[in-house]
Amino acid sequence: MKKMIIALMALVMSVGVASAQNYMVVDSEKVFKSIEAYNDALEDIEALATQYQDAVDKKFAEVENLYNSYMQQRSSLSISAQQQYEQRILQKEAEATEYQESLFGTDGKLMNKRLELIQPIQQRVFSTIESFSKQYGYDLVIDISANPTILYYSSKVDFTERIIEALKK
User: Fold this and answer.
1) Does 40 map to a domain?
2) Which domain holds residue 29?
3) pLDDT digits (tens, 9 = 90+) for 109-166
4) CA-CA distance, 64 to 7, in Å (whole number)?
């Protein structure tokens, strides 16, 4: 019985070791940075983000100016005029926040532009990695750029450069 358990454990361990060797390592960040269209898209997105941030800053500056003006005039305003002013400030602030969300939110213009520019490149990279893996019989691909807990890997299993070359074809 003991021999059977030991034999079974040895079999499980050998199967585990054999299947564990069927993997490859890729640095996806390096792959993406090797693609000119990706770098151009990042620059376009950054420029757009700066442009959008300037527009948002102007909206919030208007709110701040309105608030400062109100604080200067507050003592000379009637209570109803103060309430109207405060409502106007709150409304402007809500509009600025809504505008900011329309640009930078999860469904905002910047995210949509990012998806439009980056997603086709990502799909191409992931498709290339998948077909490369299938072609050479790898069952698992580990992305070393996204997993900082990997303490060591052999350069023999790093296929980053081969993926970059496959993308250029």
Assistant:
1) yes
2) 21-168
3) 999 999 999 999 999 999 999 999 999 888 888 888 876 666 566 777 888 888 999 8
4) 76
Token pair of 124 as six digits = 């191409």
Report, as an integer, the average pLDDT of 59-75.
Answer: 95
Three-class DSSP labels, the chain: CHHHHHHHHHHHHHHHHHHHCCEEEECHHHHHHCCHHHHHHHHHHHHHHHHHHHHHHHHHHHHHHHHHHHHHHHHHCCHHHHHHHHHHHHHHHHHHHHHHHHHHCCCCHHHHHHHHHHHHHHHHHHHHHHHHHHHHCCCEEEECCCCCCCCCCCHHHECHHHHHHHHHC
Domain presence at residue 85: yes
